């Protein structure tokens, strides 16, 4: 019983001779895929050129450029590489300059709409400088009035000179104080605008300068 | 959808809209349709970017969306819409040759934007035209909006541009799916005055849409049919390019040039007139045109090309007998009734395309054999040798080479039930559909390869190209000739040589892309013409 099945395994199941191959011939085995770049029988013709085609090629290049600049080109977010580089600031994406495109949400499914996040300021609350200044404005006018008064009193004969001097000094002090305040405010603004201002961050009052030298003056160290 | 087609789609998306859009688009093409959450899960990218990419794809008419049974919005992409991007220059050029520069700019604007309101498109076109007028300093007065609006009406009438599909909403006014039009004629409704209004949609904030009172929407639902003609509260409707009409035009153009080659220029004029006549009478998707009578064709001929009825009769006879059945005579009434057979014409075009490929690949002797196979349908090897008049050895070699590359198929017909080779007939034949499908795949592959090659060529020389661009920008901003020369010197001689080489190479590659697309178009047209439309089930 077992012997019956054995006959099939020998050689090929088909009659090779019928295919035009001799008895002893070995069928070439295909052990590898065909070459990636099979040799060409004939060299292909160069693409035909005419004015229409040239025009279309130019159109194509123009179109590609327009598409790259269009807001529909979604850029990958800038990936942080190994380290942050200074030059990263100046590398522009393909369409960074393009205007932002907001789809007409009447035509698009609502679920695609990015919900706008409300910004809650938790830290770094800034004083409203403009409002603050407005509040101060009447103070300034009052001050001016005061000054005018002082001037008037000055013009009067020296009746209350002592008192005058005192008030003048007081006013001066006040004025000085006010000026300083304003300067500080401006200073703050600049600081906010250019956070990375090198000069501001780095401040050396020069106190430590030369300390080492003085030590060295005492004599060479051996 | 085949793998190679998908690969080409990916390359095109990447090139036109960036990596992110490409990966979202591919995830949609790999799966028939999927909801947003699924896309996010599959692509593993940030949801924000996926949403942005989906918006881009919808805007470009690549992705459509509908509501599934579970109530979720599902998105599905169309690979054919992506492949249209290869054909953009063809569309623009076609619009230019048909209707002039204004139409060219309009179509270009619509193609770049995907969809746009007419107001925006007209504005941009007017600006562009006036700019180019200013540059050329011609004496033509400024182009007015009305002139462009007329052009728009002409384009709509020619069906080259159409309205975008409207969307349907749920009760809360949220957009859920795209309408599938029961009546496609609505899409070609001529533009009204309100269509030119400035679009407000883009400026509308997100909150405003939700504020649309429920009442209004209910009203809208109630009179859906009548509201189509009126300005809806969502603002002017969007318009896009109707690529199908462009494709019909390309097909007609191919038929005309084929006739010109087979017979002569005058015959092609007759053919052109017949096609123009049939255009208005026939549904563009039909495989045969409406009947055209002899007198009709005679009177419709352009004035400068009028010919006597005798000559005309000869030409029509010639057309119906010699042109592999482009035109058939269907009756004698009205001086003779004629009909254009589009499917036969497309088949003939496809065959000639395949024959060219065989000629370039295997040589003229192989082509001779191939023609024998095409003419005789089922031929034995020996008959092929005899009919092509080739020595058996050479014929065998070429035939089997073509067989190995799938240009030729083999049918076995056994005399005995045991299929013994000695008692079997082997018939060679050509299965046109199969061969054109195979070639189409190869074209997809070739196009993708060309794109990759071009991109490599560009990225290798990116530094040089950037430099050239910057130098050009500086030169254009300068006035003095001396300074210009100085700046020009910045690009050295060897660099210039290299740049020229790169430019030349990319031009050849782009030209071959365009030519490949022509082949793709013919092959696709043939394959589509063989697909019978599904029978419409009437409820």
Automatic annotation (TrEMBL), chain A:
Residues 157-168, 177-197, 209-222 have a biased composition (Acidic residues). One of its GO terms (cellular component) is RNA polymerase III complex. Coiled coil: none annotated. It holds the Pfam family RNA_pol_3_Rpc31. InterPro entries: RNA_pol_III_Rpc31. Residues 116-222 are annotated as: Disordered. Its main location: nucleus. It is found in: Nucleus. One of its GO terms (biological process) is transcription by RNA polymerase III. Residues 136-156 have a biased composition (Basic and acidic residues). Keywords: Nucleus. DNA-dependent RNA polymerase catalyzes the transcription of DNA into RNA using the four ribonucleoside triphosphates as substrates. Specific peripheric component of RNA polymerase III which synthesizes small RNAs, such as 5S rRNA and tRNAs. Belongs to the eukaryotic RPC7 RNA polymerase subunit family. Component of the RNA polymerase III (Pol III) complex. This is DNA-directed RNA polymerase III subunit.
TrEMBL record, chain B:
Its main location: nucleus. GO terms for molecular function: single-stranded DNA binding. GO terms for biological process: DNA-templated transcription. The keyword Transcription applies. Residues 7-68 form the RNA polymerase III subunit RPC82-related helix-turn-helix domain. Keywords: DNA-directed RNA polymerase, Nucleus, Transcription. The keyword Transcription applies. InterPro entries: POLR3C_WHD (IPR055207), RNA_pol_III_RPC82-rel_HTH (IPR013197), RNA_pol_III_Rpc82_C (IPR008806), RPC3 (IPR039748), WH-like_DNA-bd_sf (IPR036388). It holds the Pfam family RPC3_helical. Residues 354-430 form the DNA-directed RNA polymerase III subunit RPC3 winged-helix domain. GO terms for cellular component: RNA polymerase III complex. It is found in: Nucleus. Residues 198-349 form the RNA polymerase III Rpc82 C -terminal domain. DNA-dependent RNA polymerase catalyzes the transcription of DNA into RNA using the four ribonucleoside triphosphates as substrates. Specific core component of RNA polymerase III which synthesizes small RNAs, such as 5S rRNA and tRNAs. Component of the RNA polymerase III (Pol III) complex consisting of 17 subunits. Belongs to the eukaryotic RPC3/POLR3C RNA polymerase subunit family. This is DNA-directed RNA polymerase III subunit RPC3. It comes from Elysia chlorotica.
